[in-house]
Amino acid sequence: MRSETTRFVLVQAVVVAVAAVGISTVVGLAGCEVSDQELLQATTCRPQCAGKVCGDDGCWGTCGSCDSNHVCMDGTCEQCVDPKYTGTNCDQCVDPKYTGTNCDQCVDPKYTGTNCDECADPKYTGTNCDECAPKYTGTNCDQCVDPKYTGTNCDECADPKYTGTNCDECAPKYT
After folding, report:
1. CB 64 within 8 A of CB 48
2. Of 1, 26, 50, 170, whose CA is between 20 and 30 Å from 68?
């Protein structure tokens, strides 16, 4: 049994020595055993960042990080091959409006278009796609403004006796 106690805390894989008095093994808070050699390395570790601008420093830290559109490769910041991507693994879309494997899908499903600025549902309009488009009305923009039209796109004649773009021509069997 030890007459003096040494306490160590294991915090995110970094062992911090609080006091050390002749011990051979210490059990950390996480139940991990830490040997004298590991303790010595943890308390005497010197970051190895010579020639590196990013990446692991060998002492549970980093030598720095890269700007967007760059990834750390062997201590050097390299530009992501595809300019649409960014992040430490070049796996995030540069433009936050986009997602998907090709950064070509709008994050917000109510938008579409090259700049994710068009309403995906043609029944809606407005900056937030929360207003009924000109041909539509109703709580869910699911009714046609002009009663002579019906259908999903309000482009079908509501009265089967009529046809034509303006629903002003007699249907064939009603002539």
Report:
1. no
2. 50
Residue with tokens 């420093």: 57
Contacts of 112 (CB under 8 A, 6+ apart): 106, 118, 119, 120
pLDDT band at 24 (very low <50, low <70, confident <90, very high): very low
Whether 21 has a pLDDT exceeding 60, the answer reads no
Residue 67 CA, chain-centre distance (Å), reads 17
Please tell me the distance from the alpha carbon of residue 142 to that of residue 145, in angstroms, as a whole number: 10
Place of tokens 């970094």: 14
Q: Greater confidence, 41 or 90?
A: 90
Which residue, chain included where needed, has tokens 């093994």?
A: 25
First-last CA distance in the chain: 109
Query: Would you say the pTM of this structure is higher than 0.70?
Result: no
